[in-house]
Amino acid sequence: MSQSSHQEDLTEKILKQEDSFNDKNSESFKDQIIKQEGNFKGQIKKHEDNIEFLNSQSNRLTESVVDLQMSLGKYHSTNVTKSENGNGAFHTEEETVEQILKKENSAASIFCWIKANTQTSNLAFVKDAVGVVATLAKVESDDLSRILSEYVGLETMLAIVCSTNEGVKALEKYDPEGTVNSTGGLHGIGSSTGKKINGRFVVICLEDLRPFVGGFVENDPQKKLAIPKPRLPNGECPPGFLDYAVNMIHLDSNRLSFLTASGHGLRETLFYSLFSRLQIYKTRNEMMLALPCITDGALSLDGGMIRKCGIFALGSRKDVEVKFPLIAGESDVPPDYTEAEDVVRKLQWETSKLAADIQREQQLLDFRKAKSTSQACSGETTW
This protein's superkingdom (predicted)? Predict the structure, then answer.
């Protein structure tokens, strides 16, 4: 073999060894990159899980704070009313009925008279009727009673509520020409007592109302509706929010146990129809600050009124002729007001700590993601 041929073989052998070495190094480098990617993914997943857990804890604490603040707000509004009244006197259901009876030529007045009269209480429309709107619920404070009654309006406060359409039909009879028969139904009873119903009157049929179907607040004795609390764009519940109007009315045991033929109660039928998601605030200023999350109107205990989104009721309050009665005795409030305030402060502190933890985890997550992306780009260039 010539010297030049031997040199070529030696060169070729060296090149093959170098290629083999480079291949092994390349494979080793790829393995390292893949391993690093796996580590980065694991770390990213860990931070994401931490953030999810911390967010759930934060949401739970926020809900607890809001619930306590709502209870404290109701307690405050009730106590303010009692201190203004001096001896804590309250407006009773009997007084509400007296207010209705003063409306002598109204259907509600005649109906209340019939209900109290044993000789006429067995009439078909009386049996089917649940009552007059103003007598079917109570509230915790006079301020709340006044603003809710004004919002509903006198005509609807005096509305007669029937369970079925049969009850509605029994209230009024018609001549063949379609005119109202003054001797039939409620008109006939009124005529026999020297009273005449002036103009139209409102009747509400429960079986025709679309009920709220979102369920009830768990373990709530009043069966309040499980409506999500309003949230501002920053995710927080508006300051001064007390509750939804439909959940701030109190039903006595006989009203609470009432069910329509389809199994629905007064809160999710009648009162949800009247109030929908009407929000209640302590003050007008707090109500106005909550505008971004008000969809179905809002009221404030100091007289503010938003009938629905974009429609404001300004001016002085009206004198309410018929209003909801007040709850007798103590309402469902925290047993120790000061202790409840301390709990709120502690929960708010814990919430702020969680917010800091969430921010720190988010920063670590962003760092890991950026490093992972940078490493991936570096690996692609090397390969």
Answer: Eukaryota
Q: Yes or no: say if 286 and 307 are a contact pair by the CB < 8 Å rule.
A: no
Element (H, E) at 62: helix 3-85
pLDDT of 308-342, one tens digit each?
888 999 998 878 889 999 997 544 444 455 566 65
- 247 closest CA partner among 209, 208, 221, 210: 221
What is the spatial distance between Cα 263 and Cα 261, in angstroms, rounded to a whole number?
5
Residue matched to tokens 């929000």:
279
A 10 A CB-CB count for 141 gives: 24
- pLDDT tens, residue by residue, 220-276: 999 999 999 999 998 899 999 999 999 999 999 889 888 998 899 999 999 999 999
Rounded distance between C-alpha atoms, residue 171 and residue 160, angstroms? 10
**Neighbour count for residue 287 (Cβ, 10 Å):** 24
The full set of domain ranges for the chain reads: 63-333
Average pLDDT in the 63-85 region?
59
Phi and psi (nearest 5°) for 293? -115, 15
